[in-house]
Amino acid sequence: MAAVGRVPLIAGNWKMNLDHLQSIAFVQKLAWSLKDAHHDYATTEVAIFPPFTDLRSVQTLISADKLDLAFGGQDVSAEESGAFTGEISARFLKALDSSYVIIGHSERRTLHHETDDEIARKVAAAITHGIVPLICVGETAADLEEFGPSAVPVAQLTAALARVPKATDVVVAYEPVWAIGSGLAATPEQAEQVAMALRAVISDVLGAGVASATRILYGGSVKAANIASLMREPNVDGALVGGASLDIAEFSSIVRFLKHVGT
Fold first, then answer.
1. pTM value?
2. Domain CATH code at residue 108
3. Catalytic annotation on 105?
4. How many separate domains does the chain show?
């Protein structure tokens, strides 16, 4: 289990799914489901990452109904403002009370060709506006075969933290690209091996105290059937959930992993 003091975080990345009306119904049902199950948010934090067009609706609902769900953006611009058509600045996300923002997701790295330097600039932009960056790192199957299980994630995280001040709150998600959407998750031992290496990077760059407090998530075909085994590992502090986060029953079960994780 995660070290004492690190509250587990289960994060749902909706990707390009659910419009703003659908998001309202979804958040209401998710909150009701967790309330009916007597979920204690003090023991496991829950965050959702809707599309940009849903954020105002989600913020209004969560604020009005005083829900304990956290939320954030799926990406952010490295720029503050200006002639950057289609971009969303960290200042905009902060104005909507976003607690988090996903940065460096494998789909952004692959489909939008985001570089390590651009990701580092985005991380710095989020921190400047008081938003916790959820930094994604991970290797492809080819990377795994060529470089081994942790070399690429370690290099990506080292670059992403290059502009981060000491004593800064960040979240890191290890998402092996070969596992995402495949139905085949990394084994708990594989996730733990990489998470331990990533924590060592945080210690080297930001200090041992920050490393001890930083939550490291696993992402890649997470489901209710495998979350308990993943969460038994001492350096795995939660999950970044993709497809399963759109299934309320499944996501709720993942959130309530403590009911069946054991020790």
1. 0.95
2. 3.20.20.70
3. yes
4. 1
